[in-house]
Design goal:
By secondary structure, the chain is α/β, with parallel strands linked by helices. It is about 45% helix and about 20% strand. β12 (about 350-355) and β13 form a beta hairpin.
Length: about 375
């Protein structure tokens, strides 16, 4: 009897252990890995946020269909920061203290990213911006990354192209002085123009939110430039070009991805035809993987995916790949693997993080407005500054 009782006891112990393991597995499967979306869904820069979020959610859906992140469901936590720096700080803090996110993707703007990055770095939470291209972002700390084509690489390459191809020697430079992104980009463009044999013949300032540019355009017209570099956002860019055309100044505009929005043409109409924007992505001549992504996005939203969609999608995939390699969803557990990302095959191009966590992406896509839509003008190869 003692022997039989011993066997019975061992079976009971075995069943208890098995059920315990099944229970633990069920808890793991039911768990969630949270990534915070940081960006504006309303306001002046909402286009960037909405498109980035769509890309992130597409990536999350695919990841969950394939089994999630280390057996757990991936959840995108979202709030509207309205492009307001105070609200950006509030949302970032909520993601960290309330939601306990494993990473934050955003903000799409440089100024917003800097605000959030300081908070994320202090709390040792990964922040990866899928849109910030200006200076002074990754320098905030070793938990800060981005997967964009950065201005310090792209603007000089584009400047060389327009000076050589379009013979722009006399150039007008217009800066939005209450916009960190614009101020930083103007410095880069000004240096690049000088390095490539051009000249800034006139410099004018505007502000985000301005609607009357008649005084600035009058001064631009007097300088007789070959072309204009505008480093601000699409709303002011569209209104500025309308005033140029109104005053009879027939030159084109080039700028960074702050101009990359359908609103540029919706607001500017024929005045923005011929305007050029550099970006890290174009849907034209896609790879097979990018075509699959584009087809899926088109089927869901009935429009073409832009750079912000593609980079938001890639940002989530890059972070999750690092989590899987590290077998950890804790920021301090996978940060090293994220920093060692090499040649990640994203839909917006291959991404390698340099030792300073800046992304190396090539080529630059120079887009031009044709019949109200952005089309690929040229793919410009780039290399990091030595």
């Amino acid at each position: 009897m003692r022997s039989a009782h011993g066997k019975f006891s061992r079976w009971i112990l075995f069943l208890v252990l098995a059920l315990s393991m099944i229970g633990s597995s069920a808890v793991l499967a039911a768990g969630e890995v949270k990534i915070g979306f940081l960006g504006a869904l309303t306001g002046n820069v909402a286009t960037y946020g909405i498109q980035t979020l769509r890309g992130m959610e597409m990536a999350a859906d695919e990841i969950n269909t394939a089994g999630g992140v280390l057996g757990q469901k991936l959840v995108i936590v979202k709030e509207d920061d309205r492009g307001d720096k105070t609200e950006i700080a509030n949302v970032t803090q909520k993601f960290i203290s309330r939601d306990h996110v494993s990473a934050i993707i955003g903000d799409p703007t440089t100024g917003g990213t800097k605000v959030a990055a300081a908070i994320a770095q202090e709390n040792k939470v990964i922040l990866l911006s899928a849109g910030a291209v200006g200076a002074g972002v990754v320098e905030i700390g070793d938990f800060i990354f981005r997967n964009t084509v950065i201005d310090s690489i792209a603007a000089p390459a584009v400047t060389k192209y327009i000076v050589e191809q379009f013979k722009w020697k006399r150039i007008a430079l217009v800066t939005s002085i209450n916009n960190d992104y614009s101020v930083g980009l103007s410095r880069i463009f000004e240096e690049a123009v000088k390095d490539n044999g051009g000249g800034i013949m006139v410099k004018e300032n505007v502000s985000d939110g301005d609607t009357d540019f008649s005084a600035q355009v009058t001064k631009l017209k007097a300088a007789k430039p070959d072309g204009m570099i505008f480093t601000g956002y699409y709303t002011e860019g569209a209104l500025l070009m309308k005033e140029l055309r109104k005053q009879g100044l027939n030159i084109n505009m080039v700028g960074g991805d702050g101009l990359l929005s359908p609103v540029l043409s919706e607001l500017g109409g024929k005045a923005v035809e011929g305007s050029m924007v550099y970006a890290g992505f174009s849907p034209e001549r896609p790879s097979p993987a990018t075509k699959k992504f584009l087809d899926a996005y088109r089927a869901k939203y009935h429009e073409e995916a832009d750079m912000f969609v593609a980079q938001g999608y890639d940002a989530v995939k890059i972070v999750v790949a690092a989590m899987k390699r590290a077998k950890s969803t804790e920021p301090q557990g996978y940060r090293k693997e994220l920093a060692e990302t090499k040649g990640f095959p994203g839909v917006s191009g291959n991404t390698t993080f340099l030792p300073n966590r800046e992304p190396l992406k090539s080529p630059i896509c120079l887009l031009v407005v044709r019949n109200g839509k952005f089309g690929l003008l040229e793919r410009i190869p780039v290399s990091p500054k030595k």
